[in-house]
Specification:
Blueprint: H1 2-12, E1 17-18, E2 25-27, E3 38-40, E4 46-48, E5 57-62, H2 67-82, E6 89-95, H3 99-109, E7 115-118, H4 122-126, E8 131-132, E9 134-138, E10 144-149, H5 157-167
Parallel strand pairs: 1-8, 5-6, 6-7
Antiparallel strand pairs: 2-10, 3-4, 5-9, 9-10
Length: about 170
């Protein structure tokens, strides 16, 4: 049975699946460079993450078809608001959904985070994202620090422990 489950997981991961299990941060591999990210933002501009150097950044990869993604979005929005003075940027990177789907999601939820459009999935692939939601934390130095895969209460004590070093001033 385990072999069949492993095969099913291997077949699903390239398509993108969502996670709902307990999560822990995984350190970014020491020798791996942080991929460049330059994507269109819903509403017309383009976001180049390199321009945010000096600020901590959370890149949250999500899709509207993923219940854990939808569930964690409100805590990401509150986190962004609470830590605006610390310079925190929270960017919601939508994975391969149509304009109509994103428009409908924003209208239904009132999402105010900047929504970046990964229309072809190339950015998710570059960051190694295969399960949703996945959040990549980028330090003030512009380097990825860790990845969290799965739904997180971003206002909870556990997330606070992960984020405190990221938010600390130099």
């Amino acid at each position: 049975m385990r072999r069949r489950e492993a095969l099913a997981a291997a077949l699903l991961l390239p398509m993108g699946v969502c996670a709902a299990d307990a999560v822990v941060p995984t350190p970014w591999p020491a020798g791996r460079a942080t991929p460049a990210l330059k994507l269109p933002v819903w509403g017309g501009s383009v976001q180049d993450v390199a321009s945010l150097r000096g600020r901590p950044v959370l890149l949250n990869f999500w899709a509207s078809w993923c219940p854990p993604c939808v569930e964690e979005m409100p805590t990401l929005e509150l986190l962004a608001t609470r830590h605006q003075a610390d310079g925190l940027e929270v960017l919601a990177v939508n994975f391969r959904e149509t304009d109509a789907t994103v428009r409908r999601f924003i209208a239904q939820t009132g999402l105010t985070l900047p929504v970046l459009r990964d229309r072809d999935g190339a950015t998710a692939k570059a960051f190694g994202v295969r399960i949703f939601p996945s959040t990549i934390a980028i330090g003030r130095d512009g380097r990825a620090q860790f990845t969290v895969t799965g739904e997180v209460d971003w206002l909870g004590a556990e997330a606070r422990r992960w984020l405190d070093p990221l938010l600390a001033t130099r």
